[in-house]
Amino acid sequence: MGVEGVLVVCVAGIMGGLFTAPVKLMKPSWRWENFWLVYTLFGMLLLPWALVFITVPQPIAVYAHAETRAIVLGLVFGLLWGVGSVLFGLGTELVGNSLAFAIILGMTAALGAAIPLVSQHISEVIAQEGICTWVSVVVVAVGLAFLALAGMRREREQASPELRPLNDGGIDDESGKKSKGKPSFKIGLIVCLLSGVFSPMLNVGLSLGDDIKKVAKNDYKASGLNAANAVWVLVVGGGFVSNTVYCVYLLCKNQTWGHFKEDVFRNGSLAALMGVFWFGGNVVYGIGVDMIGSLGTVLGWPTFMSFMVIAANVVAAVTGEWKGTSTKSKTLLAVGLFILFIAVVVSALGGVNF
User: Fold this and answer.
1) pTM of whole model > 0.85?
2) Is 249 exposed, middle or buried (0-12, 13-18, 19+ CB in 10 A)?
3) What's the pLDDT tens digit per position in 253-286?
4) CA pair distance 206, 78, nearest whole angstrom
5) 192 FRET partner, CA 20 to 30 A, in 27, 58, 144, 145?
6) What is the DSSP secondary-structure string of 165-220?
């Protein structure tokens, strides 16, 4: 494994952690389902297919000659991941970026690394790579515990009337009390936990696409790095269906189709930028995984998730999401981020020959 591959995955995580940042710059005229649908269109449909047609020769022929099983599994796990993606978006709205990223991506990191390791690399479970993976998963869990504690302290401190909290997690700006009609924190936590169960299906789907990559590379002369794009488009295509169905349901239920007419250029551009950050990060992740080698999806996944959490929390701090919180809460945040960095180092050691 090349350490360079791990560094590329770190860059991918930073890009992924920035994908919800544009929401903070949007005008309030759009509801969640408005900007999430535009983001879904760009990040899960237009950009993936554009990349495939640019980088993979005759992509339709690739799918025609690939095993049907690999294609079906890619789409199915993409649909399941899409459910996690919807819940992810709702989770960030309910409990804030810091806590949502910590809980969801922590579970995603653990399950997304462990499932491919056990199902496809059973001989490596007790080898150096496997041991480092299990240790990094445990370290990630410890770091996320600190981040979750910091996030819950933030919610409690910002709910105090004296602190004039940000409108995050259902707290009213004026009274410091729970706003009527908004889901409770417990509901938000459940949403995040469910997202953490479904979101790892993205990595599982990608890990099952080796046959598609081989056809693209061996039969149609796509480069090793570009061949992975043929798998990405299938998996995120399944996610596109899940996300689009739910957004259209909300647009009809809430009668918010007309909101697209307001601030269309500003909000539309920012929603499209979300798609660029998200899909761009995933493409770079795929490149890093290929550079790491056969255990790329096992060793790279915790690194990718950890740096997404780090980037999201840095953005949250810069944009004032932690305004009005105590030094202890911010210290817990810093400690949690540092522990996640340690997890990245442990994961990288799994592929180093001593």
Assistant:
1) no
2) exposed
3) 999 999 999 999 999 999 999 999 998 998 888 7
4) 9
5) 27
6) --S-SSB-TTTSSBPTTSPPHHHHHHHHHHHHHHTTHHHHHHHT-HHHHHIIIIIT
52 in Cβ contact with 235 (< 8 Å):
no
> For residue 189, what are its two tokens?
């936590």
Residue among 35, 44, 4 nearest 278 (CA) = 44
| pLDDT tens, position by position, 113-128 | 666 666 656 666 666 6
**What is the Cβ-side half-sphere exposure of residue 224, based on CA atoms within 13 angstroms?**
8
One-letter amino acid at 89 equals: G
Residue 256 exposed, middle or buried by CB count within 10 Å (0-12, 13-18, 19+) = middle
Each residue's pLDDT tens digit, 185-205: 678 888 988 998 898 888 778
> For residue range 149-194, what is the model confidence (pLDDT) as tens digits?
887 787 778 776 544 333 434 434 333 344 445 566 678 888 988 9
Q: What is the DSSP letter of 46?
A: I
Cβ pair 159, 176 in contact under 8 A:
yes
Distance CA 306, CA 75 (A): 26
Q: What's the CA gap between 242 and 85, in Å, rounded?
A: 9
Residue 53 in contact with residue 292, Cβ under 8 Å?
no
The DSSP letter of residue 44 is: I
Q: What is the dihedral of CA 194, 337, 331, 171, to 10 degrees?
A: -30
179: left (phi over 0), alpha (psi -120 to 50) or beta: beta
